[in-house]
Design brief:
With 338 residues, the protein is of the alpha+beta class. The protein is built from five helices and 19 strands. It has a twelve-stranded mixed sheet, with helices on both faces. A hairpin with a 3-residue loop joins strand 7 and strand 8 (142-148).
Length: 338
């Protein structure tokens, strides 16, 4: 009886040992992800991105194409507002297309290598591989990593949880959190296809602009320049609105809000003008593409500009950091959801 008990115990221990040997370690998974990125030729993916930064969540459909080494096409569409933007990277540079305004902007930029991107697989893998303090766990179907982010506004969004399928290491979801662990951005992938085929013009700027305008018609040009002035809900400590005035700009009436305090800034807004040319030409833009979540803007040392829902915005400041400008911009955007 005693020998039988010892035999059963030994068998049970062996089964546990074999099971443990079958479970991959964090380093095993990290190495496999690194190898996956090295071997793959590109991919196509579809996802839903939800922004929880305002009163009501904003939901976007995201379509991602990537062909190694440097071709990218990211189409972001808010179906409720007919708001669409596309980020392209090809041999000519980095472009942000806004089909509703028949406008495209070209940047001299190394995007997307300069920061984290929640919808780009290789960016997520890079964040996992480079974070030596990343947390790791697994369940029956998934590997789950908690890592630091490398966003341009990483002090606002310092952490993320990345869930991957065990079977093929495809991304399942990404949750990006603030300093209080509140999830502000969620990305849920519905489809990922590695080593996808792309035709010759898949990343061509003019071709993509034409196709995007079919999906999201160009906004009608209206005679009135009037619009509802929007005010930021979040301001740096001690900063107050000191002056509001209307001036005549090149494209019509412009509203200028001046905020004073230790972190002073100016917020300019005016009705966006639709480019009237039949064929959109790209405007060379200073700075870097800046992902605000709800749209892609342009960031320089002292300004942050963006277009949304038919209005052009610009924040100018000698004192605000990019993170602080982003926070102000997001608090302006919440007004549009009300």
């Amino acid at each position: 009886m005693h020998k039988k008990f010892i035999g059963l115990f030994a068998c049970a221990f062996l089964l546990l040992l074999l099971a443990a040997c079958g479970e991959k370690s964090q380093q095993d998974v990290t190495d496999a992800l690194d190898a996956k990125i090295e071997d793959m030729k590109g991919y196509k993916a579809e996802a839903e991105m939800k922004l929880n930064t305002g009163k009501d969540a904003q939901v976007y459909d995201v379509e991602i194409w990537h062909s190694k080494p440097t071709y990218y096409r990211v189409n972001l569409k808010n179906t409720k507002k007919d708001q669409s933007q596309m980020i392209l990277r090809n041999d000519e540079g980095v472009f942000v297309l806004t089909p509703a305004l028949n406008k495209s902007f070209r940047f001299q930029s190394d995007w997307p290598q300069n920061s984290s991107q929640a919808y780009l697989y290789e960016s997520l893998v890079q964040d996992i591989v480079q974070d030596e303090g990343a947390e790791f766990k697994s369940n029956d179907k998934h590997y789950i990593f908690k890592t630091k982010t490398n966003y341009q506004n990483s002090t606002m969004l310092p952490k993320q949880e990345i869930t991957l399928n065990k079977k093929d290491l495809t991304p399942v979801s990404v949750k990006i959190m603030d300093t209080d662990n509140k999830v502000l951005i969620e990305v849920d992938f519905s489809k990922v296809q590695f080593d996808s085929k792309f035709d010759k013009g898949a990343f061509d700027t003019k071709r993509n602009m034409t196709g995007a305008k079919i999906d999201v018609p160009t906004m009608a040009t209206e005679k009135s320049d009037e619009f509802g002035v929007l005010y930021p809900e979040i301001l740096p400590k001690g900063v107050k609105l000191a002056e509001e005035k209307k001036v005549e700009g090149e494209n019509g009436e412009r509203v200028v809000l001046k905020y004073e305090g230790k972190k002073s800034f100016t917020l300019v807004q005016e009705k966006a003008k639709v480019a009237e040319t039949a064929v959109s030409t790209a405007t060379l833009t200073a700075g870097e593409p800046f992902d605000l979540g709800f749209t892609v803007g342009a960031l320089t040392d002292k300004t942050l500009s963006w277009s949304y829902d038919g209005i052009d915005f610009m924040i100018g400041s000698e004192n605000l950091t990019p993170e602080e400008m982003s926070k102000v911009a997001n608090s302006v955007q919440t007004q549009l959801g009300k």
